[in-house]
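Researcher: Batch entry, complex prediction.
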Amino acid sequence: MDCNKIQELISLYLDNELSSQEVMELEKHFDVCNKCKQDYIALKNIKAVLSFNRKEVGLDFTSSLMCKIKKEKFSNNIISFGSMKKKIIIAAGFLFVFASSVIFIDTNKISINKQTFQTYEHAIEYYESYDEDIDDYAEYEEYMLSMLY
Amino acid sequence: MQDKEIIEKILEGQQDLYSYIVDKYKNKVFSIIYSFCGQTGDSEDIAQNVFIKIFKALPKFKFESEFSTWMYRIVINESITISKKNKQYIIPLNVNSENADESKNNLINLLKSKDNIEKQLIQQETQQIVQTAIKQLNDKYKTVLTLRDIEDFSYEEIAQIMNVSTGNIKILIFRARNRLKEILIKGDNL
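Model: Structure tokens for the complex:
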């Protein structure tokens, strides 16, 4: 194995990511190549120094953070699933009221129509202009009569 | 309780449970921020602000990845942004000039040492030199070295956080370590 290949393997060796075969070849190379061995030692020491760079926060870190969160009232900004449920219930309520009012208005319209049309002819005249899709005249006539009487 | 269960409960309104998440990850998050930002400003304050950002972003978490993967991405992005903002305030080396050469020599000897290094034997100045050297790395190298050598994440975890293949992570770590070694041995700007 040449030095270039060994250089690539050194990093994996430090992280125990090599196969036993590769480890054997690498260690054999270190016995004969001082430069690669020195590079390995330097990288190993750098890795050790870096691992000492782990830091720890102070004891009150979490409590003071939670205080900040409560103080700034982030609860208004967070779209919680709980409040989503409430919103869905409220929306369903509004939809129900809206649908009920539409039905009420429609029913009302029919009762108004009952009072407005004085004669059968008036009713036919109105509904001919109102709904052009009705084909069956007999059925239509029956419907009109039911509306009037 | 798993992270995802806790997050679900937080989103349902039990916001106090966020303290479990903070307790679990606070030291790792703080170390990452410290690695990127060093002593510029108060790293603990920065870490708290990052945790607040994560809290506010919780509704955007889609439960498709591990929570920690999603969270560390935010931490790294924030760390990079903050370190760039604070760049002009970074003092290259917090060691007085009389001791600087001695510290560098100690570091060179340390790098050559065949004995196992113990934390107690490393002078504060040496750690500061390494910290300054890390800051000279590009963002990708800084990220992989922080996650691998400081935080001890596996290659797979780093690959998920950085959203690249494990093969690429191996190459990045190899290059980052060699670049750091070059900076430390040359001693420029340290």
